[in-house]
Amino acid sequence: MFESLSEKFQSAFATLRGRGRIGEGEISVVCDEIRNALIDSDVARTVADKFVERIQLEASANLDSIKLSTNPSQEIYSIVQRELVRILGGAGRRLKFAKNPPTIIMLAGLQGSGKTTLAGKLSNFLKESGNTPLLVAADLQRPNAVNQLSVIANGIDIPIFAPQPGNGVGDPVEVAREGVALAKAKFHNVVIIDTAGRLGVDEEMMEQIRSIRDVVKPDEILFVVDAMIGQDAIRTAQAFNQGVNFDAIVITKMDGDAKGGAALSITEETKKPILFISNGEKTSDFDYFYPERMASRILGLGDIQTLAEQAKRVVDTDTAKRLEDKFLSGQSFTLEDFLEQIQAMQKMGSMSKVLGLLPGANSASMKKQLAAIDDNELVRTKAIVQSMTPQERREPKILNGSRRVRIANGSGRTVTEVNNLVDRFDAAAKMMKQMKNGGGGLPMAPQIARPVPPKKKSRSGNPAKRAQEESR
What we know:
- By secondary structure, this protein is α/β, with parallel strands linked by helices.
- Helix content is 57%, strand content 8%.
- It has three domains: 3-87, SRP54, nucleotide-binding domain (Four Helix Bundle (Hemerythrin (Met), subunit A), Up-down Bundle), CATH 1.20.120; 103-301, 3-Layer(aba) Sandwich (Rossmann fold), CATH 3.40.50; 309-471, 434 Repressor (Amino-terminal Domain) (Orthogonal Bundle).
- An eight-stranded mixed sheet has the order 3-2-4-1-5-6-7-8, sandwiched between helices.
């Protein structure tokens, strides 16, 4: 998402940095490049024009100070960054909770935008924050929608209110009303209502959503939009805004191949903020939307805050404290510690997605490295470590040839892979000691869990001797 836009933005600034002096002409050239980049990324032309106009006005107003700056290109860069944050909604918005529970959230959007899956993700997100959500299946239009939501709810252990099988099509308004009544009776503090969509905007759909809105009086109406909707985003968003006056936007499928123009267009035209984004298939691939962080990613600065938050969520406090104390005391890291790191990284999701939050992730060289990452390497590495005895994990030095053959057989890997893992672990352990003494380096797990080099032929036919040869 936004990869193409990010590349073009960085290209525009590279041109600007190559200029010795910056005046109105240079600013105009960069603005033209930015406008073309936005339009190519499916941003509506009217939005792109407004965006560039504001940049030109601010740059012209501060031209004297820009010329006197030791880094004039950085001044323009800062102006663009501020405008990106502004066009993405400014300050991040948070969910509004009712003073008197339950808080009622109604989802609206076209069929195929991902409302039903989003309902499950949102309920799981709220559950992990200490809330007690109830899902209400009021989409009685699409075949199997109720069953789909029921499967999602059962998978994440969230209670659901749905019409019973055999009761006919049913009335979605009545289902929503009864769902809210059940939430009050069972003391659920949040109700999430999944409503029906259509392949296109029509009055029948809007009338149904309005009827549900008028009966349950939701605290939040969220417009769910597929990131791949492209240039049609504004028309659809305006139709829903006029029809039900939604409060905020949720963008789904942010991990797809979409150019990202919808996110930049909708907020500017409707003046409604983006509240959440869904960026993967897992239930946990869901979070609040942070305009300043997204602007940072578009400009190639990465998103270290999100990366740190993800790491904090998957590493429990006790484990983090124990590893920190061990590091500060100078104790040696073991393969048991490394196994805990692997398990935490697996919870964070795809390695390429995680490392994609680092600064420069959209550069050509970094993209090439990310494309070469094999997420299954963590699984294979974990299998090798788990095939070791507790003593072997704590004392890797005792791993002689015969032990390595046994570990290879137990994990279904080769002796070469076992040897490579142990060698990389030794190198990473040394690196950790250097970091303690003021050196630098990457975290241990990414360095160890990398693709294994091609297997070398051994001159020995004996497995144990071969393992000893390879370990040298």
